[in-house]
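Field reference: sequence -> structure
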Amino acid sequence: MKIDLEMRERMKRLAERRQRTPDWLTRDAVRQYVEREEARDAFLRQARDAWQEHRQTRLQASAEEVLEWLATWGGESETAAPVCQE
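Structure field:
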């Protein structure tokens, strides 16, 4: 990977502060980027699949029902998710 001199120097200083090598920083940055993009792809795929399911079934819950349900999260009286209807 070609990195300009200024960035190489910045990475070298950061690596020294972190007690790592510049190569370690590069591998970690690439790993984080790939994980983030994979998560983004999965989210978009799930959203697309949910939209297709909704278009086929026309089932939905109102915003009010969902907000009421979310308000119970983490409390002693946490309720089940609202039932989707046509």
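Note: The radius of gyration is 23 Å.
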